[in-house]
Amino acid sequence: MTQVRLKRLGLLGGMGPSATLDVLQKIVELTDANTDQQHLPIIVWNLPQIPDRTASLVGGGASPAPLLAAGARGLRQAGADYISIACNTAHHWYDVIRAASCLPVIHIADTAIEALAGVEVRRGQVAIMATAGTIASGFYQSRLLRAGYIPLLPHRSVQDEAVSGAIAHAKAGRWPEAVRAVSHGVEHVVARGADAVLLACTELPLLVRGLQPHVPMIDANRALAHACIRHAGARQRADPVMAQEPTGR
Amino acid sequence: MTQVRLKRLGLLGGMGPSATLDVLQKIVELTDANTDQQHLPIIVWNLPQIPDRTASLVGGGASPAPLLAAGARGLRQAGADYISIACNTAHHWYDVIRAASCLPVIHIADTAIEALAGVEVRRGQVAIMATAGTIASGFYQSRLLRAGYIPLLPHRSVQDEAVSGAIAHAKAGRWPEAVRAVSHGVEHVVARGADAVLLACTELPLLVRGLQPHVPMIDANRALAHACIRHAGARQRADPVMAQEPTGR
C-alpha cells in the first residue's frame, strides 16, 4: 500500500473551545479512514485568551490581531502546510493571518457559500446567522452578493437577543438557553423569507441539532471540515447530511 | 476582576484522533468557565501518523519514539508550559517525551490511580482494560501494586478479541462492533472478580457510555482532564460522575 503524505493542517482555534472541538470532530468523522494513520495531521492552536472578536469590531475592545498573527506564525513553525480558522468572526483578520503565516489559508465563508450550491435556494434569499462582529465585517454579505444570492439579516432586536444571545449562552455552557434562543432566531429569519440559513458562527451548529426549519441550513463548520480534508489530500466519507452539504462532493 | 494567567497545556495526541477529542471535550466540559478567556490555552499536536504504539511494543513495528520526541519539542517551541499525552500506550515512552520537551509531563496512570482513591474497591482488585502494548509495558501494574491494589488482567483470548478488538473497531469508526466487544470484556473482568475497572486506553471511555457494570469504572481520560485543568490553574467544575472521579476534588 502506498502511503500518501497528507498535508499538515494548522487550525487556529479556541474562539471558543467548543467551536474548535466541533470542527475537529467533523474533520475526524468525515475522513474516510480505517487506521489512525489515514487521519489528518493537525496542529491546533487553541487559545481562548485571544480577545473577543466581536467586542473588538463593534465594542471598541482590544484587537485580537496580534495574538491571531502570533498563532499563525506558531502554526507555520510547527510545520503546518495550510491554515484554517475555527471562528467565523476572526476571518475579519484573514489578511493578517495569511500575511503572518505565509501559508495558504482556507476561508470559511468561501466553503460555506460553495456548499450552498448543493441545496435548493428558491428565490436566492440566504439568511446569515452570525455574530454582530461578522455582520459588521460584511465578508459574508459581499460573498453572497458576488455569488448571486440576496443576503438577509435578522432584525436588530432578534440579532441581539436571539443570535448574539445564543452565542453568549453557548460560550458560558448554558446549552438549553442557547438552543431556545437560536431556534427563535431561525424561526424569525424563515418568517422573513429566508430560503436557506447560513450558520455562520462556529458556535451555532452545536445548537441546531434538533431543529427542522423547512429550509436548508448550511453548517459552515461542516463545510470547512470538508475543505480541510480535501486540502490535506485525504479521502472524504460520503456525507448523508444533504441539507448541509452539496450532493456533488 | 483580576485575570489569572493560565498555564499553556501542550497535548500530544492523534493516537487516535477520537481519543484526543475525548480528552479535549472533557477538559472543556470540566473547566468552570463563563467566557472563552477562562478556558485552558492548549496547543494540540494531533499527529495520527505516529507509528502504532502497540505494534511497536508487541509486534516489532517501527518505534514511535522519534515522532513523540519531535512532538514534545514542537510543543515546547509553541510555548507549552507542561505536557499531557492523550494515549495510554504512548506513556511507555514517558521518559523520552519528558527529556525531549524539558517540561513537566503529567502521567495519565498517576491521575487514574489517584482517581481510584475516590471509589470503593472492596478487595482491592482492579482490572486493567488497555492495549496489549500498555499491558506489556507494565506501568499500570507497577503503579497499582505500589498503591496497594491487586492488578487483574483479562484472559489472553478476551484481551485479544474483546479489548484489543474493540480498540481496533473504534479506530476504524465501527462503533457498534466496538461497543459490543468492550461490553463483553467488562463482563469478563467483573466475573473474574474485579472490584473496579480502569479504562486505561484513551479509546475505551468512548465505548462504555451505556454500560452499568455494578463496579466503579475509572475513566483515565477524565482523570487526565481534571489533572490538566488543575495544573493550568483554572477552576474545575464539580463533577457528578461519582463512579469515575474521587469525591475529594
Task: Describe what you observe in this structure.
2 copies of one chain form a homodimer. With 249 residues, the first copy, chain A, is of the alpha/beta class. Chain A has 2 domains: 9-107 and 222-232, Rossmann fold; 109-220, 3-Layer(aba) Sandwich (Rossmann fold). The first copy, chain A, has 10 helices and 7 strands. In chain A, the strands form 2 sheets. Chain A has a 4-stranded parallel sheet with strand order 5-4-6-7, with helices on both faces. A 3-stranded parallel sheet of chain A has the order 2-1-3, with helices on both faces. At the A-B interface, α1 and β2 of A face α1 and β2 of B.
What is the secondary structure topology, with strand pairs?
Two copies of one chain form a homodimer.
Chain A: E1 9-13, H1 17-30, E2 42-46, H2 53-59, H3 65-77, E3 82-85, H4 94-101, H5 108-116, E4 125-129, H6 132-137, H7 139-146, E5 150-152, H8 156-171, H9 175-191, E6 196-199, E7 217-219, H10 220-232
Parallel strand pairs in A: 1-2, 1-3, 4-5, 4-6, 6-7
Brief overview, please?
Chain A is of the alpha/beta class and 249 residues long.
